[in-house]
Amino acid sequence: MTENLEVLRTRTALDTAFFEIWNDLRWYIRRKGSMENKILLEVLDVWVRLLAPFAPHICEEIWERMGKKEFISKAEWPTCQEEKINVKAEQIEAYIKELLEDAYNIIKATKITPKQIHLYVAAPWKWKVYLKAVEKATSKTLTMKELMPELLKDSELKDKSKEISRFAARIVDEINRMPQEKRKRILQIGKIDENQILNQAKEFFEKELKAKVYVWEEENKEKYDPKGKASAAMPYRPAIYLE
User: Does the pLDDT value for residue 225 go beyond 90?
Assistant: First the structure.
């Protein structure tokens, strides 16, 4: 927001200050179920100062009700606290939100009211391929011709050459279209434990989707997969089966 104000992009700054923070608050409460007063006050302390240039009168009123003595117009402008940024946590929340939207879209398209939902997370070898592909794409356009020899240097991957070739063909275009910032973030985080993340969020998914949720690893031989959906699982994009 500060950067936008410095170049007089006031509308973008206001959108960031109001709507993005509001959306984050709504998501936080939706995920957690409530918000502690201490956290709400901490957020408000920053949020009201950011909005003060656009709505000075109401922000002064809120500031006073928060127990502040000086005018908000004289308060210190908020600065980014780099040490509090958790890229992995943000990426995991984006992952959960996108998966929830995917499930809603499937329910809407199929017009099914599911009683149970099965989520299949990508096999470890797919993560190896995916991260190597993202790494190769950071410096230049990714091609199958350059990617495959790199992948087959790995003895574990070499035994799955046909499967790897099919999977790599699916992800090359997607990764090439991926914003550079997102590629860097993915490489910074590395492989995430999708199985653990989804099991921890299972109660949330069940509440939102009003169905029993099961999480399976793609290569689990005992998984329930009557329609063979598990093979479609990709890193950051579990396969979904409704029943």
Answer: yes
CA distance 183 to 139: 11
pLDDT of res. 67: 92
Would you tell me how many other CB atoms lie within 10 Å of the CB of residue 103? 21
Q: Does 87-242 match 2-84 at the fold level?
A: no
Enumerate residues 6+ apart whose C-beta is below 8 A from 49.
59, 72, 75, 76, 77, 78
Show Cβ contacts of residue 240 under 8 Å, excluding neighbours closer than 6 positions.
Answer: 99, 102, 103, 106, 117, 118, 119, 120, 229
Bridge partners (DSSP) listed for residue 237:
234
What pLDDT score does 127 carry? 96
What pTM value is reported for the model? 0.88
Domain boundaries along the sequence of the chain: 2-84, 87-242
Residue 113: φ, ψ to 5°: -105, 95
Cα 32 to the center of its chain, rounded Å = 16
Instruction: Compute the distance between CA of residue 165 and CA of residue 179 in angstroms, rounded to an integer.
Output: 24
Q: Which CATH number describes the domain made up of 2-84?
A: 1.10.730.10
**Which pLDDT does position 138 carry in this prediction?**
86
Mean pLDDT of 164-179: 93
**CATH code for 87-242?**
3.30.2320.20
How high does pLDDT run on average in the chain?
Answer: 93
Structure tokens, 35: 């918000």
Confidence (pLDDT) at 153: 87
